[in-house]
Amino acid sequence: MGYTNIQNLVSFPHFMNGAWGVRRNYHAHAKEMGGVAPSTPKFFFMPPIAIVEADEGGSVDIALGNSANQIEHEVELVVKIGENFEPVMMAVGCDTTDRTVQAIAKSKGTSWIEAKGFPGAAVVGGWIPYLDGDYNISLSVNGNVRQDSNTSLMIHSVNTLISALKEEGNLSEGDLIFTGTPAGVGSLNPGDTVSAWMQNKAGEIISQFSGICK
After folding, report:
1. Exposure string (b/e) for 41-68, b if CB count within 10 Å is 16 or more?
2. CATH among 3.40.30.10, 3.90.850.10, 2.60.40.2310, 3.40.190.10 for 19-212
3. pLDDT digit string, tens, across residues 107-150
4. What global pTM score does this model have?
5. Among 72, 124, 138, 157, which residue has the least CB neighbours within 10 Å?
């Protein structure tokens, strides 16, 4: 199994039904992080223990891992892979990131799995059938909107991301892809209320979640 395009995963096997995250898939986010977007998709892996799904009412606990560290939110479009590697479901999600641990991993050139894969780090809202198109994705903390963008601004499309993972032999039915976050990432603290939602072109909310950080 090759990992030539999979950043920082050489030491880790492929876990079934985990989630793939995409690095810097929006130019504005790459800029706010002090870098540039890669010309080809770069991925990191989040194991199944990281994934937590909202209930039917959209409620979910937001896990912070080690809340003494700098923990940040990243709202994203999430897709679920079905048979023949086709996207079959989609939802709004949040890749909750431990920046303190991530910075150490970056400096050492090691895996991001502890920064991105702690229990409950990959939050997913209500699933709906996948439909190719452009969607607004937004996130608020304590009622203040911090991220508000559109998936049309993704550098690499859903189909491009799937093709890249298929080429490396790293994609399985049931896997999730967190397709990258737009600008506006920010810190989270215990007790914060986080809400995220995805809207179609008509402005209808089609996926959402809300929860308290713990």
Report:
1. bbbbbbbeebbbbbeeebebebbbbeee
2. 3.90.850.10
3. 887 778 888 989 999 999 999 999 999 999 999 999 999 999 99
4. 0.90
5. 157
